[in-house]
Amino acid sequence: MEIPLPEIEPLLSFLQDIIRIPSPSTRERGVVERVAEEMKRVGFAEVSIDEVGNVVGRIGSGSGKSLLYDAHTDTVGIGDPAAWSRDPFGAVIEEGVLYGRGAADNKGALAAMIYGAKSIIDADLDLTGDLYVVGSVQEEDCEGYAIGLLCRKSKPHAVLLGEPTNLQISRGQRGRIMLVVTSHGRSCHASSPQLGVNAIYGMNKVVAGVEALNSKLAQHPFLGPGSIAVTRIEGAGASLNVVPDTCRAYLDRRLTWGEDEALALSQVKEIIEEKGVRAEVETVIYEARSHTGYPCHKKKYFPAWLLEEDHPLVQMGARTVRRTLGYDPQIMGWRFSTDGVATKGELAIPTIGFGPGEEAHCHTTEDQVKIEDLLKAAQVYAQFAVDFLGR
Ligand SMILES: [Zn+2]
To answer: How far apart (Å, rounded) are the C-alpha atoms in residues 195 and 218?
Structure first.
């Protein structure tokens, strides 16, 4: 039996609803509850909100293989509202395109996943395994954290991420790590600076070393080069007429294939030693309370991940797209970071990406998704679950 086409009207009005509910990281409750309501309404067998606050819906037989679809419910902020030509929470539709914060990243995919599952439910297809659709939380602040907690317990056999691929297949991304360097000096009155040791001057040498390091980092033919950038410097003197005894610099380090936390730390330690600066480097810690009150604590280290192009999951995704939409998808990698850092990077669960929307619109005032692409994505989500799990 053919899977019926998802209905566009209810999909759209549901997506408009969840775009109109602002959901910055750790404040996703309103959207999560709305998503749970919709999952129940369309007939998911089981719907729950886990301890960290992910909303999890299940359809299928309750045994056998399991496939997990993940789209995050949180969004980045809107910045200056005046910079938007349309209301970021208006979810307006113009000429076949839906606009608003989270349209591309990542609420459009979530709505398409739920309506893809609904097609399976409506067709009375008996999957031989389970499909989980997850609206995850805190992806923008600490990708992989919340979905990682869930996947450590539920151990799905494969994961599909709905981050925007413009309906192509993604098979990996660079990793990243946030580092902080603290340099130390000795305070004195700024009128006699020669009596102290200025922590900022020490940091200056480290910064020069970091700048030089950027061009020497490893390369990978698919993921590209590793990179490093200083993104913030804080000098902490008691007041503006005191030579500061502490300075902090934050480093955004992108990790290509083969680069990990130990390597990233050792490269910066080497600079500190070479320059003879009294300083140390460590990984920044993420600390937050989720919308359910769960205490989150994690190093901001997100490993790179990659699936080979000939991996069965990549090939199955490409076949489903060809069969459903009639073209051979491009097999690409993401520039940005995703929940795959946990599902594949930490937990080694085969993971691919497929989503409506374009990477270029994420986090911008032009956040948008084409209505036609929502429908296409929903079709692929329905067919891929059947192809992967069987019936
Ligand atoms: Zn995203």
So the answer is: 42
CA of 105 to the centre of ligand 1 (A): 5
Verdict on whether the full-model pTM lies above 0.90: yes
* Nearest of 224, 222, 232 to residue 182 by alpha carbon: 232
In the prediction, which pLDDT does 236 show? 76
| Mean pLDDT along residues 342-369 | 96
What does the pLDDT average to over 171-177?
98
Which residue in this structure is represented by tokens 């750790």?
Answer: 26
By CB atoms closer than 10 A (0-12, 13-18, 19+), residue 82 is exposed
> In what helix (H) or strand (E) does residue 99 lie, and over which residues does it extend?
strand 97-99
Host H or E run for residue 363 = none
Distance 24 CA to ligand 1 centre (A): 12
Please, where are the H alpha helices in the chain? Answer: 8-20, 29-42, 108-122, 139-142, 145-154, 199-213, 261-275, 312-325, 340, 371-389
Q: Which pLDDT belongs to residue 1?
A: 57
Structure tokens at 371: 């209505």
Burial of 141 per CB tally in 10 Å (0-12, 13-18, 19+): middle
Q: Which residues are catalytic?
A: 74, 139
Mean residue pLDDT across the chain: 96
CA of 59 to the centre of ligand 1 (A): 24
Opening angle at CA 144, ends 230 and 19, nearest 5: 95
Alpha-helix runs per DSSP H in 156-260 = 199-213
Q: Could you report the per-residue pLDDT of 232-270, keeping only the tens digit for each?
A: 999 877 789 999 999 999 999 999 999 999 999 999 999
Side-chain-side CA neighbours of residue 375 (13 Å) = 14
Instruction: Mention every residue, 6+ apart, whose C-beta is less than 8 A from residue 94.
Output: 86
Beta bridge partners of 297: 287
Q: What is the pLDDT of residue 227?
A: 96
Q: How does pLDDT run across 27-77, given as a tens digit for each residue?
A: 999 999 999 999 999 999 999 999 999 999 999 988 889 999 999 999 999
Distance 224 CA to ligand 1 centre (A): 20
Q: Which residues surround ligand 1, an ion (CB under 5 A)?
A: 105-106, 163
